[in-house]
Write a structure and sequence with these properties.
Radius of gyration: 21 Å
Low-confidence stretches: none
CATH topology of the largest domain: Aspartate Aminotransferase, domain 2
Distance between the termini: 21 Å
Structural class: alpha/beta
Largest sheet: 7 strands, mixed
Number of strands: 10
Number of domains: 2
Number of helices: 13
Helix content: 40-55%
CATH architecture of the largest domain: 3-Layer(aba) Sandwich
Mean pLDDT: 95
Length: 366
């Protein structure tokens, strides 16, 4: 059972799927910035969800948010070639760091606070002076931790660094209410949102970004020359999805139930894990027995490398419980010592995996 990738498995609303076939927008070129219908639906959702009044001219569409994350550093460097650094969290979704490489820039990782969330105080003044942008991700992939978005906005304004807040998991915030950096003003900040997780629409590739009018306007003008256009029928479906909240309420209940079931099973098997503050991943510490065994194996082989504790635990879960998970080092060196489990499979499959794990009992890790 593959729980290594955060791919939604539940169906999107029927009205959203229907909109793909009935908009009539497939005949002409779609607006790169996004249709007025889509942008107004995004504004309405942000008003309902966060209490944020955002105008349609402060919103633009993107072809799913992964391409937005990957390409923005390159466009910002065209705007200011004197800066060459992308600040990004760690452990984190690897595309933040990859975006720097694609833009010919430096990626500088910013560590996490002891309780989770990005440690802005750890950014050296010399790095801030070279920064094109700062990425924050709250709730975080992979850890589920929440960052102080008010502090991030203030940091960016103080240092003159645009802050881009990836909020694709905001609907699945378990600790308190969903939050956006735009609650603290739009000056110098951009929030990035996806319908992939919220509405189970990863396959149609639609998202949007909103915030500072200058940043949104600049990026939308540059991006249209790159041919970055969300297909017209997809924009129509996105507008329907953003206008409905009931399906998201149902999805929240599914993900929370799956997280709780997997966490309970791991606890029974002697691998205690706390529920995340947000997102639909469990960030599971590698048990000490596995770490000790991995280091002992490396020592006996005389190898300085060998199998890391994260990889060893992932292999053990695959061989003993039939479940694939992601070794933490996929998310940067700070992720070593953890594995990530995505609670995205249908309920019956999650129950099957949880039953396998719980049945292992104690002392099975090595």
């Amino acid at each position: 059972m593959d729980l290594s990738v955060g791919t939604p498995s539940d169906p999107p609303p029927a009205a959203v799927v229907g909109a793909l076939a009935t908009s009539g927008s497939e005949r002409g070129y779609p607006p790169s910035v996004g249709s007025l219908e889509l942008r107004e639906a995004a504004c309405g959702w942000m008003e309902r969800r966060f209490g944020i009044p955002v105008r349609a001219d402060q919103v633009a569409a993107c072809v799913g948010t992964k391409e937005m994350v990957a390409s923005t550093a390159g466009y910002l460097r065209l705007r200011d070639p004197t800066r060459d650094t992308v600040l990004c969290p760690t452990p984190a979704y690897p595309t933040y760091a990859m975006s720097a490489l694609l833009a010919g820039c430096r990626a500088v990782e910013v560590g996490a606070l002891p309780g989770g969330g990005i440690d802005l105080a750890a950014i050296a003044p010399s790095e801030a002076g070279r920064a094109l942008m700062l990425w924050v991700n709250s709730p975080s992939n992979p850890t589920g931790a929440l960052s102080d978005l008010a502090e991030a906005a203030a940091w960016g304004r103080h240092h003159g660094v645009p802050v881009f807040s990836d909020e694709c998991y905001a609907e699945f915030t378990w600790s308190g209410t969903p939050r956006s950096i735009l609650e603290h003003g739009t000056d110098g900040v951009v929030a990035v949102h996806s319908l992939s997780k919220r509405s189970n629409l990863a396959g149609i590739r639609v998202g949007f970004y909103a915030g500072d009018p200058g940043l949104v306007g600049y990026l939308s003008e540059v991006r249209k020359h790159a041919g970055l256009m969300v297909p017209g029928p997809v924009q129509a479906a996105g507008a329907v999805a953003l206008s409905d909240d009931s399906h998201v309420i149902d999805q929240r209940a599914r993900y929370l139930g799956r997280l709780e079931r997997l966490a309970s099973a791991l606890g029974v098997a002697g691998v205690p894990v706390t529920l995340p503050e947000g997102g639909f991943y469990l960030w599971v510490p590698v048990p000490p027995e596995v770490s000790t065994a991995a280091h002992s194996t490396s020592a006996r082989s005389g190898s300085a490398g060998g199998e890391s504790p994260s990889w060893r635990f992932a292999r053990t879960l695959a061989s003993r419980a039939g479940v694939l998970v992601s070794p933490g080092e996929f998310y940067g060196s700070a992720g070593e010592g953890f594995v990530r489990i995505a609670a995205v499979a249908p309920d019956d499959r999650i129950e099957m995996v949880a039953g396998r794990i719980a049945a292992l009992g104690q002392g099975w890790m090595v």
